[in-house]
Amino acid sequence: MKKQMQRLQKAVTDSYHYKILKFTFELNLTHKVDGSQSSIKCKKTMKLAMLGLGKMGGNMAARLLRHKIEVVGFDFNKEFVNNLVEKEGLIAATSVQDAVNKLEGQKIVWMMLPAGEITEKQIKELIPMLNKGDIIVDGGNSNYKHSQRRGAMLVEHGIGFMDSGTSGGVWGLDNGY
Question: Looking at residue 111, what is its pLDDT?
Fold first, then answer.
C-alpha cells in the first residue's frame, strides 16, 4: 500500500489538481479455515471523466492512466479517443452522458475545453446529469469572473466546482502540469 500511495502522490503532486484526487488503496483480508489460509483482495481506484482529449486533455488523461487512475474519456474527434484507448487503456465514452453514466459514486468530470461559450454550454448541460456532491473541474483557461459566476450557479445545485487553468503545455505528459 505504501508504494501505491507514493506512486499516486507523485502523480498528484506533479499536478495543480491534487485537491480533487483520492488515494488508490488495496485491502487484503486473510483468514484461516481448517488450517488453510485464504485471502480476499479488494481494490478501490479513483475514476473520473475527462471531456476534451486534444493536446492538453489527451496528455492529462494519459498521465492519469499511467498512474493507475481510471479515466473515462470523451471527445468529438474519435481518433483522439481511439488512440488513448489503444495506447493508454482509456475507457471510451460515446457522449458526455455516456461518460457520466460510466462513473459510480461521487462523480468527477474534468473538462479540458476552450474558454468561453463551449465551456459555459457544457457546464449547463452537465447540471442535470450530476448529483449533489459531484465535482466539475474546468481545466481550461476561463476568465476568473466567469468561473466565480459558474461556481455560484453550481453551488445552488450542490455541485462542487474547481477552476483550475492548466499550464505545462504538451510537455506536461512527462513533466507534470
Answer: 96
